[in-house]
Amino acid sequence: xTTLHATAAGLVGDGKGILAADESIGTxxxxxxxxxVAPTEEHRRAxxxxxxxxxxxxxxxxxxxxxxxxxxxxVADGRGFPTALAALGLATGVKVDTGTAPLAGAxxxxxxxxxxxxxxxxxxxxxxxxxxxxxRAVLAIGHGTPGAWAIEANTHAxxxxxxxxxxxxxxPVVEPEVLTAGSHPLEVCAAITRRVLSALRRALDExxxxxxxxxxxxxxxxxxxxxxxxxxxxxxxxxxxxxTATMPDDLAGxxxxxxxxSSEDAAAHLTAIRALPTPWPVTFSFGRALVSxxxxxxxxxPGAVGAGQAALTREVGRNVAVxx
Length: 324
Ligand code: 5MM
Description:
Blueprint: H1 3-12, E1 17-21, H2 25-34, H3 41-52, E2 61-66, H4 68-71, H5 81-87, E3 91-95, E4 100-102, E5 110-112, H6 118-127, E6 132-139, H7 148-167, E7 171-178, H8 186-207, E8 215-216, H9 232-246, E9 253-256, H10 263-274, E10 282-284, H11 288-298, H12 305-319
Helix pairs in contact: 7-8, 8-9, 9-10, 11-12
Bound molecules: 2-O-methyl-1,6-di-O-phosphono-D-mannitol.
2-O-methyl-1,6-di-O-phosphono-D-mannitol (5MM) is lined by residues 20, 22-24, 27, 99, 136, 177, 257-259, 286-289.
C-alpha cells in the first residue's frame, strides 16, 4: 500500500469521519455574525481552536479540513494548527479551491476556480503539514440546470485538481455538490447526481486519477429542501444506487457532505446508507451538521468553550459508525 493509499484509507476507516471546518473567510464571517459574534480573524481562529481541541475528537474524527487562513494560524500555545492536529491524532486537510465564479456560456451557473498555480499552492500546503486537500464544485437544480457545459467544466476542474494533488502525494477529497435548494422530487436529484458523477468518473479516468488514493465527498440523494421528505431508507437506497452505478469499486471511500440538512436528518440518512452493502467504506465529512450546534452554544463567549465542545462531541457521536 502506498502512502497515498494509506492516508486515504485512514480518512475513511474505523467508522470515523472528516470534520469540514474550511468555511472561506466570507462564509465563516457571515456564520459568526449570525451567531452574534464579531467576524474578526481572532474570532475565526478561536472558533476553530475550540473545534479541534475538543477532548477525544480523534475517537470519531480522522481529519479536519481547514481553510488557508487557519493553516497559517496558531492555537493558544503557539503551535500551528497542523502541528496541534497531528499531536491530537488528526490529519490536516486544506481547501484549495478559490471559490465559484460565473461560468461563461452558462447563464446563472458557476464553475469552481483555483487551478492557476495550484501545484505550487498544494506543495506549500503540504510543506505546512497538510496530507489531504478539498475542492468543491457546486451545481444547482433548476429549470434546465445544471446544463451539460456546467457539469463538464466543473468535473474537468475536479479531475485536474485531483491529479495535481496525487502528483504531490496529497489525497484529494473530491466534492461535486448537487445543492438541495428547490422543491424537486428525489428522482430528479438522483438523475442529476448520476449525470454529474458519470461525468466526474470519465474526467477522473482521463486525468489518470487513482481511485484508491482519493475520497469522494458527494451529496446524498434527497428530495429538494422545499419538497416533501422521503424516509431514510428511501434516501439510502437511491444514494447507494447512484454511487455504485457510477463510481469504481476501488475508491478509497465515500464521505458525505451534509448540504444544509438538519443534524438529525443527516445522521439518520448516514445510518441508513451504512446499513446497505457498498464496495467502499462510507462515512461523513459534514460541516454544518457537525458544527452549527457548537457555534450556537459558544456564541463567542470564552466561558462557553466547554458547551461548544460538548455540542460537537454530541454531533460527532451521532455519526461515528460503531463496530458491529
Ligand atoms: C465548511 O464549508 C465548506 C466551505 O464552504 P465555502 O467555501 O462556501 O465557504 C464547504 O465546502 C463544506 O465543506 C461542504 O459544503 C460540506 O459542508 P456541509 O455543511 O454541506 O456539510
